[in-house]
Amino acid sequence: MRFFFLCFIISIRAVPTYAQNDNTDWSWSGFVDAYYGYDFSKPVSGDRPGFLYNHSRHNEFNVNLALLRMKAKYDEAYAHIGIMAGTYAQSNLSAEPATYQHLYEAYAGIQINSKTALEVGLFGSHIGWESAISKDNWTLSRSMAAENSPYYLSGVKATYALSDRWTFAAVVCNGWQRIHRSSKNVTPAMGTQIVYKPSDRLTINYSTFIGNDRADSTRQWRYFDNTYAIWQVNSKLGITAGVDFGAEQKSRGSSQYYTWLTWAIITRYVLNDMWSVSVRAEQFMDKNQVIVSTGTAHGFQTAGLSANLDYAFTKQSVFRIEGRRLQSRDAIFSGDKSNLSVLSSLAISF
C-alpha cells in the first residue's frame, strides 16, 4: 500500500516538468468520506449487516473512502488510476487478492473518433444510479440495489455516442464485480448500456449483465437488467426511480431459474445553496438467496425507508446525516426483523 501511494505522490510532483516535455496533460483529484454510524441492533462484531458495503462499521469514527485519482491524456489516448483506502475498500474488495484491494480504478483508453471510445482495465460499472463516491449521490447511504450489484468491473468497454441524446456501450469483463477471476475456466461476462437524455432534466438508463460466476463444470448463467430514470423536475426538486431484475439458473443446463427483484424511489429537494433533503423508499426481494445469503426460511426480503439532511459548506464539502429503517421478513438483524440506524458523514473533494 505504501508503495502505491509513494508512486502516486512522485508522479504528481513530476507533472509540471513531464507535461512540458511530451505534451501530456496531467490532472489529479481526491476525495475523503469520514463517518460515524450507530446501529441500534448493536452488532457485537461492530460490523453492520453483511449486505451493506459502505459505512459498514457500528459506533466508531472511521473513513469510508479515501481516494486519490490521477488522469493523463496524450492526444487521443488517456489513462486513469485511482488508489483508495477505507472501510468501503475492505468490505467491497475482500474477495480480491491483496494486490488489488486498494485499486479504485486503473484503465487505459483511446478516443477512436468524436463518437467512439475504447477503455481497457478496471473501471466503474455501467450498472446503477449510485457510485462509491457518496458526495455524488442523493442519499448518504447506498440503496440496497446499489450495494448488491457491481460497483466496478474489469475488462474492456466500448462506448458510442450516437448524439447528444443517445449513448450506447458494450462491456466484456471477468465477471460479476471481479478483478481477479476465481477460476481460469470461468466464462467471460458481457454487458450493455443504453442512455437516453431527451432533455437536460431527464436521463433514462437501461443496463444489462449476462455471465457465469462459477467454473464451467458448474456453470449457472446469470441474467440481470437495471433500469432507472433521473428526472430533475425543476431547479429544486429531483426524482430518481429504479428497478433491478435478475435471474440465475438453478443448476448447470437447467431451464428453471431463481429470480430476485429490487426497486428504489428517491426524492431530493434543494432548499437553498447550502441545505437539501432527500427521502428514499426501497425493497429487495431475494427469496432464494442468489445475491444475499441469510440462511433463513424466507431468504432476503427487506424493505427500507430513509431520510437525510445535507449541509454544503462549499461546492467541495458537505456534512450529511441520515436516519434509516430496514424491515425484513425474517430476523436477520442480530435476532430482530427490523433495523434502525443513524449515519453521519463529512465528505470533501479536491
Explain this structure to me?
This protein is mostly beta strands. It has helices at 2-13, 15-22, 87-92, 144-147; strands at 25-39, 60-74, 77-85, 103-111, 116-124, 152-161, 166-173, 189-199, 202-212, 221-232, 237-249, 257-270, 275-286, 300-312, 317-328, 338-349. The chain has a 16-stranded antiparallel β-barrel. Strand 9 (202-212) and strand 10 (221-232) form a beta hairpin. Mean pLDDT is 92; it is low at 1-20.
Structural class, from secondary structure content? mainly beta
For the record, give the distance between the C-alpha atoms at the N and C termini, rounded to a whole number.
21 Å
Q: Please work out how many helical segments DSSP would assign.
A: 4
Instruction: State the total count of DSSP E strands.
Output: 16
State the strand order across the main sheet: 1-2-3-4-5-6-7-8-9-10-11-12-13-14-15-16
Radius of gyration: 21 Å
Query: Low-confidence parts lasting 5 or more residues at pLDDT below 50?
Result: 1-20
Q: What is the H-and-E element order?
A: HHEEEHEEHEEEEEEEEEEE
**Quick check: average pLDDT?**
92
Q: Shape from CA axes? A: globular
- Strand portion: over 45%
The profile of the biggest β sheet is:
16 strands, antiparallel, barrel
**Helix amount, in percent?**
under 10%
